[in-house]
Amino acid sequence: MRSIHESGCVRPGEGWPRRVKPAGPAGRLSWAPRSALLDMASAAVSAVRKAKTEAKVSMRADVAVAVIAGPASFTEAVREFEADLKAAGHIGEVTYAVDDDISVTVQL
Questions:
Q1: What is the pLDDT of residues 55-100, one digit of tens each?
Q2: pTM for the complete prediction?
Q3: CA distance 46 to 40
Q4: Average pLDDT, the chain
Q5: Which helix (H) or strand (E) holds 46?
């Protein structure tokens, strides 16, 4: 049996991947976890999926327009990952509305 440390094993010539710490502002990591943003992203994706389920269409169905409503802090955060939301939900256009409650309305 070969050791993972032997030449030609697992990743020849490269060794194991190494963690790289990209420097962000003030020396902080630019990819530092932002759990609140992740929670908001999850809520937005879940709402799009729920709307598709209620419309009885495939999760891969295209969405012409998604209207994201919620508190200003929520809609501002969603804008940070809008491109990912569009890709995950097959969404053409995203518009925003400020409201007390979080909701997503889709037009297929």
A1: 899 999 999 999 999 888 888 888 888 999 899 889 999 999 999 9
A2: 0.61
A3: 10
A4: 76
A5: helix 35-54
Write out the DSSP string of 64-105. Answer: EEEEEEE-HHHHHHHHHTHHHHHHHHTEEEEEEEE-SS-EEE
- Residue type at 80 in one-letter notation: E
Interacting residues of 57 by C-beta distance below 8 A, sequence separation 6+: 108
| Sign of the C-alpha dihedral computed for residues 97, 100, 104 and 107 taken in this order | negative
Contact 42, 50 (CB under 8 A): no
Q: In whole angstroms, what is the distance from residue 42 CA to residue 66 CA?
A: 15
Q: How many residues does the chain have?
A: 108
Backbone angles phi, psi at 34, to 5 degrees: -130, 85
- pLDDT at residue 3 above 80? no
